[in-house]
Write a structure and sequence with these properties.
By secondary structure, the protein is mostly beta strands. The chain has two helices and nine strands; from the N terminus they run E-E-E-E-E-E-H-H-E-E-E.
């Protein structure tokens, strides 16, 4: 494995009824357009009253549910995670458990596809900053982090789930 530098964004997703927001933490704001839910741990008292409610997805305005899932670590980040089944293996499993569809917003050539709306055709790495800029009013905190990636991930910038529940790397060699 090798160390990789990144950032951890904390974003406010507005509740659909206008009564407030739920704060999610993510290292990948550019995949927000493919979010299908926000997940919280069912034992996390901070969020039990929000389970079953909906949030309005920033940028698109699409409504997505707040679901309870034991895979969520209440001590990590804000304790609420955006669920993007089309781009993360853990999220794919959460999506299967909750019957969530998967939207893919990335092409295999390392660009964002038509599902990415205003970021379509941008290189994935180049979409992160504009996505974060659009979300600026919702950002409560950005923290620099160091994570770990295995050596084969040097040429990969993302992953997406296939219909066979297998992750496919997407090269950033455009």
């Amino acid at each position: 494995t090798r160390e990789v530098k990144g950032q951890f964004w904390r974003l406010r997703y507005p509740l659909a009824d206008g009564s407030g927001y739920i704060e999610v933490a993510t290292t990948r704001p550019e995949t927000m357009l493919a979010d299908m839910a926000v997940a919280v741990n069912p034992e996390d008292a901070r969020y039990t009253a929000l389970i079953g409610q909906q949030v309005r997805l920033p940028i698109t305005g699409r409504l997505i549910p707040i679901v309870a899932d034991e895979a969520v670590d209440p001590a990590y980040g804000s304790g609420a995670v955006k669920v993007t089944p089309g781009h993360d293996s853990n999220d794919f499993q959460i999506g299967k458990r909750h019957g969530l569809p998967a939207i893919n917003v990335m092409n295999t050539d390392g660009t964002m596809n038509a599902n990415a709306g205003p970021f379509a055709e941008m290189r994935i790495a180049d979409a992160r900053a504009p996505a974060a800029a659009v979300l600026d009013a919702l950002v409560t905190n950005i923290v620099d982090i160091v994570g770990f990636a295995p050596p084969p991930a040097d040429h990969l910038v993302s992953a997406r789930a296939s219909v066979d529940d297998v992750l496919i790397g997407i090269a950033n060699d455009r």
